[in-house]
Known about the structure:
Strand content: 25-35%
Largest sheet: 5 strands, mixed
Distance between the termini: 72 Å
Number of helices: 6
Structural class: alpha+beta
Low-confidence stretches: 17-31, 274-280
CATH topology of the largest domain: Nucleotidyltransferase, domain 5
Number of domains: 2
CATH class of the largest domain: Alpha Beta
Shape: globular
Amino acid sequence: MKLVVSEETVRLVLVKHGLNRISLPPVKPIQRFVAEEPNDLWQIDIMGRVRFPLVGDLYLILALDDHSRFILSGAFFFRQFKLNVFLVLYRAFVRWGIPKAILSDRGSQFKSHHGQGEADYEWYAKKLGVELIYANRAQTKGKIERLFRFIQRDFVMENLHLTSLEEINVAFERWIEDYNFNHSNKALDKECAAGVYSASPRRLTAEELEFILVHEEPRKVLKTGAITYYGQYYKVPDAYIGRRVWTKLKGDTLFIESAKKVIAEHQIKHDRFDEPSGQL
């Protein structure tokens, strides 16, 4: 048996219960944007903890070109140190040049807090003439967040069998190349990112970048004849035990100096280690 109900009656019932479209509260639309040209805007972010059963918990730090979705640099690390953000950006600058602006969140790796002075990230950006933009909402970083979800499905799930951080990052480098040059993107009319991206005309050599972006911090030499640098131990000559020295990171190489003389040189380590105390 069909009930005959007029459209006006239905409308009044919907209005009464706040279910008609007219009575719904207005929703502010999410403003989606795309940078007009490659390198107008890069995004950098840290993907939350990822568990590799045979390696442990890792964090992915990744830089992305907003216009093309081209992955500029990325690597997995055991910790979210600002040092690791520095390394990812340094590699992107060397290979792809300098962008006009970079978008990030307000994490301690990217922005100073509570009157602690400038974060290294902010200081280096000023030296390179890069504008820094900070996201106020998660939607602002939508492109990189969607990419993180895709990486979880397409890379992480296929590489849970790997047994070392080095193996994971070698595999991820291959994955990045395949993504950039072979993965079609709906947002790019099914073009791959490499078909849209081009390197920045603002370029510096690796030597010039090392000179500008040298990362300097003081350390005290321990009784064991070593210093600690972001949770890792690096040896220095025993003659410097108990003395204060300066660390200078240039690219992936750590120089340890005393009285402006290099007393030790090491490649940065990315091994597993215990959570250190002190500065991130």
